[in-house]
Amino acid sequence: MRVRIEESWRRRLQPEFDKPYFARLAEFVREEYRTQRVCPVNRDLFRVFDLCPFDRVRVVILGQDPYPDPRFYYGICFSVPDGLPVPGSLQNIFREIHDDTGRPVPASGRLERWVVQGVLPMNSILTVRAFRSGSHRDRGWETFTDAVIRRLNDEREHLVFMLWGSYAQRKGAIIDPSRHLVLSAAHPSPRSADRGFFGCRHFSRANDYLRQHGIPEIEW
Predict the structure, then answer these.
(1) Is 65 a catalytic residue?
(2) CA gap 123, 125 in Å, rounded
(3) Per the count of CB atoms within 10 A, which of 51, 95, 109, 164 is most buried?
(4) In contact, 202 and 100? CB cutoff 8 Å
(5) Where does the record place it (predicted)?
(6) Tens digits of per-residue pLDDT, 183-214?
(7) Are 168 and 70 in contact (CB under 8 A)?
């Protein structure tokens, strides 16, 4: 199956696109787009990959489900368009960055400024029916994003993986900590940020690791 995605990703993920599970997933997603309102809109499905080619990835942030509100989700995990209120989890991320690095808290919730530097904020599930959280779970996206993680783990060295919450930590079990820096903490959700996300210092620790390996730091 030919999938429209940035070429460096397409070459590496084509074996996944050719597997039966992905054909079933693609048929399900096509039907959902045809009959339901789905987030993100079709053209933004692989937006984070299109903006961050494989060889430019430096940091991976693993999420779970997209925002189910069509105003908010446009293909980049945690990110929201300008003009919308910053969701609680992203507010807490910005707060931790400020406390950790001293950078000012931005007014905008758009994270393209991270993505173009090599940060890949990726949900485990890439689509959702509008206003129905988790509605596209167990359809095949989890298998696909596992393959993305394996490719990065196997073909790259000295990446930083940020695993926030138990779901991301289970999914990140396939990452080799002898090749990459794996940072784990509580999820930044308002329900859990006080239980270990605040004070985790993941952003300065990521930059320290990148610098030690001669890799440019991220301007958070």
Answers:
(1) yes
(2) 5
(3) 164
(4) yes
(5) Cytoplasm
(6) 999 999 999 999 999 999 999 999 999 999 99
(7) no
| Chain position carrying tokens 């609680």 | 88
The answer for residues whose C-beta is within 8 angstroms of residue 154's C-beta and 6 or more apart is: none
Name the catalytic one among 65, 99, 154, 176.
Answer: 65
Nearest CA-CA partner of 66 in 138, 133, 160, 150: 133
pTM for the predicted model, two decimal places: 0.96
Where along the chain do its domains lie? 7-212
Q: Which residues of the chain have pLDDT under 50?
A: none
Question: What homologous superfamily does CATH list for 7-212?
Answer: Uracil-DNA glycosylase-like domain (3.40.470.10)
Q: For residue 84, which amino acid is it?
A: L
